[in-house]
Amino acid sequence: MSIIVQCECGKQFRAADDKAGRKALCPHCQAVLVLPSPTPEDPDALAKAASPAPPRKQWHMRAKDGQSYGPVSRQQLDAWFSERRITSGCYLWQDGDKQMRHAKDVYPALENSSESVAIRTSANPFEGELATPRSSGRDRPSGRITLVSASRRHRGIPLIIAIIVVLAFIPAYSWNRNSGLRRNLKACETFDVVRADVYYDGFLSTNAIVFDLKDGGSSSARRIDPVHLFFEFSAKSDLNSSTRIILAHNGQQKFYISNSDLKRLSESYAGGGRPWAFNNLPERLRTMSGSQAYESWSGGWLGVLQKQTQDLNDFITMWSGN
């Protein structure tokens, strides 16, 4: 005689009658069942046992992170609960349900439980191990899932607003931090004939100032006028917060000069020593790689003056392109 066992998954299997009262695994769903006592195998009983029992509704679970698991039997669901994989933030439903149910509605013991004491501290109760496959979309109650999807879409709105605020802030911040430099430039006498802009090199740093010469100045401008404007601006500005001033043309950086060297030249320029400031500018310039741009000349004053004048003309050509 054998025992006919009916599992909640809707499947049947047989077991030896001497196993009555013991636990066994359903070969179909792996649920743990207690084997019943054997019954006489009369034809009516066997026919009744052989008739397929209506399958029980399977359970599904959605974790806090939106992951869905199932279908599983109620025994398996209870096992998840006993292992503290189901918390008060989870939702449960059975096949055919129109709405999800809070886990605490199925397991009232969760009403007074704390999420912090759960063994699994992450939102996904199955993180780090193989979980039961996700429920198919057709098994999920549609109304609740729609709300979850909308909620996820709304999560990105604060990030989008933050990006817009930052993008609007950057131009305003840049203009404000460079406004003092530009006021000094516009106050220079040669600004009316030479187009140029000044700004700090870098978004936050004030170590370097860029003096950016632009095309399109007045037709009456002389070749030496960009140098005049550069010295006029330097004499009007407090450059102590910067270590160097970069000379650029249309945004392309060409040379730089240290703050200490420029301060000495601009003081000479403002004090009436313009020829000396002009002639000594090239040898104090550095290329952007850091090497000296022009030689320092020595010897007879006439020969030195001739070499310095040649270097000055070459520098103006290299800087302005004229």
Question: Please, could you describe this protein's structure?
Answer:
This protein is of the alpha+beta class and 322 residues long. The chain folds into three domains: 2-50, Rubrerythrin, domain 2, CATH 2.20.28; 59-140, no CATH class; 168-320, no CATH class. It is 36% helix and 18% strand. It is built from eight helices and 13 strands. The protein has helices spanning 43-50, 74-82, 103-106, 142-186, 225-236, 259-270, 274-280, 301-320, and strands at residues 2-6, 12-16, 23-25, 32-34, 59-62, 68-72, 91-94, 101-102, 196-200, 208-213, 244-249, 252-258, 286-287. The strands form four sheets. The protein has a five-stranded mixed sheet with strand order 9-10-11-12-13. The protein has a four-stranded antiparallel sheet with strand order 6-5-7-8. A hairpin with a 7-residue loop joins strand 9 and strand 10. Helix 6 packs antiparallel against helix 7 (274-280). The longest helix has 45 residues, at 142-186. The radius of gyration is 42 Å and the shape is rod-shaped. Residues 116-123, 129-133 and 142-150 have low confidence and may be disordered.
Which features does this protein show?
single chain; 322 residues; alpha+beta; Rubrerythrin, domain 2; 3 domains; 5-stranded mixed sheet; 4-stranded antiparallel sheet; 8 helices; 36% helix
SSE topology sketch:
Elements: E1 2-6, E2 12-16, E3 23-25, E4 32-34, H1 43-50, E5 59-62, E6 68-72, H2 74-82, E7 91-94, E8 101-102, H3 103-106, H4 142-186, E9 196-200, E10 208-213, H5 225-236, E11 244-249, E12 252-258, H6 259-270, H7 274-280, E13 286-287, H8 301-320
Parallel strand pairs: 10-11
Antiparallel strand pairs: 1-2, 3-4, 5-6, 5-7, 7-8, 9-10, 11-12, 12-13
Helix pairs in contact: 5-6, 6-7
